[in-house]
Design goal:
Elements (H helix, E strand, L loop, with lengths): L1 H18 L5 H15 L6 H9 L20 E4 L2 E3 L2 H10 L7 E5 L5 H7 L4 E6 L2 H13 L5 E5 L12 E6 L8 H5 L1 E12 L3 E9 L2 E10 L7 H7 L1
Parallel strand pairs: 3-4, 3-6, 4-5, 6-7
Antiparallel strand pairs: 1-2, 7-8, 8-9
Bound molecules: S-adenosyl-L-homocysteine.
The site of S-adenosyl-L-homocysteine (SAH) has 25 residues, from strand 2, helix 5 and strand 4.
Amino acid sequence: MIVFLLIFLYSLCSNNKTDKETVSWQTVARRNMVQKQIIERGITDTSVINAMLSIERHKFVPKEYENNAYADYPLPIGEEQTISQPYVVALMTELLALNETDRVLEIGTGSGYQAAILSIIVKDVYTIEIVPSLAQSAQERLKDMGFTNVHVKCGDGFLGWPEAAPFDAIIITCAPPEVPQLLIEQLTEGGRLIVPLGSDFQMLTLYKKAADELQKTEIVPVRFVPMKGLIEEKSNE
Ligand code: SAH
């Protein structure tokens, strides 16, 4: 009797084993990140939640930070730049109220993570990075990972991307003291622009272009690396 019972229990256990999905620590950490940092903090847009669940953030950070890729803070990506905290990526993406037919411009490619998130929500992503080594590594990473609708350019985002304009949405992931006028001009009617605005003190700010007017909404204080290049000359004038 006991032998039968043991065999029965063993078969139960081994069946369970084969039924169980084998998931990597990265997948577990990513699901946890989305639950604790994204959903429980109030992000509700399912396209944003699904994008955060599917993009493998650990592949966008330097090897030595891989174990921290799903933690609740920004991480260094080299050249004194950082990849934003996951919640901030989700919040900025949600605030852009994106549609699958949208074309989006990002200023500050960095690792390419934010561009990858955008690329599975919208039709096309155009992203500009001022540091050549970062632009090149992000471009290679995105290509190797099969993101065919992300276009990376090395240059100064202050000028936007006139050849590809207008954009339904623009996301600036470095902090300018004011929004470059050329970027506003490259927004469609009804377009949205999200930006960490300021220098020492920065406010995440959402603009909406309607009937050639800009509606401005201040969201929450944030901390981003400063925007470099032409904007520095303009603000010193
Ligand atoms: N979105 C990135 C993180 C951005 S960090 C990610 O998902 O990883 C900010 C980036 O903006 C840095 O890489 C910095 O080099 C870049 N940057 C700063 N000034 C810029 C400018 N004028 N034009 C384009 N990129 C700029």
